[in-house]
């Protein structure tokens, strides 16, 4: 996380499912920020905090269709997990 975003984070929970992109299947996690180191990967243009709605708008600008669809699916899964009282969709 630190390499890509400049933030040291703690993994809170795994987001349910594997997410298919253009070159790989990926597992994602909900993370809690611990410290902003400010130095991020050279392939990263910028880093900023966004609401779910803002994130969806930013992801929609992605020109790689497979990556865009994957990232929107991850965002939807994370939002669903956070909106459920137990943190897990379908949990009882």
Morphology call: globular
CA-to-CA gap between the ends? 31 Å
H-E order: HEEEEHH
Query: What class do helices, strands and sheet pairing give?
Result: alpha+beta
* Amount of beta strand: 15-25%
Total DSSP E strands: 4
Q: Give the fraction of residues assigned to helices.
A: 25-40%
Q: How many strands, what sense, and barrel or not for the largest sheet?
A: 2 strands, antiparallel
Name the assembly state. single chain
Low-confidence stretches: none
Averaged pLDDT, please?
87
Question: What's the alpha carbon Rg, rounded to whole Å?
Answer: 14 Å
Continuous helix count: 3
Strand order of the largest sheet: 1-4
What can you tell me about this protein's structure?
With 92 residues, the chain is α+β, with helices and mostly antiparallel strands. It has three helices and four strands; from the N terminus they run αββββαα. The chain has helices spanning 2-5, 52-59, 65-83, and strands at 7-14, 19-20, 25-26, 29-36. It has a two-stranded antiparallel ribbon with strand order 1-4. The chain is globular. The model has no long low-confidence stretch (mean pLDDT 87).
């Amino acid at each position: 996380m630190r390499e890509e975003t400049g933030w040291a984070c703690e993994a809170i929970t795994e987001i349910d499912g594997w997410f298919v992109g253009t070159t790989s299947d990926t597992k994602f996690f909900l993370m809690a920020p611990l410290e902003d180191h400010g130095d991020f990967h050279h392939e990263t243009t910028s880093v900023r905090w966004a609401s779910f709605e803002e994130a969806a708008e930013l992801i929609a600008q992605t020109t790689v269709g497979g990556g865009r669809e994957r990232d929107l699916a991850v965002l939807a899964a994370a939002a669903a997990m956070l909106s459920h009282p137990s943190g897990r969709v379908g949990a009882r």
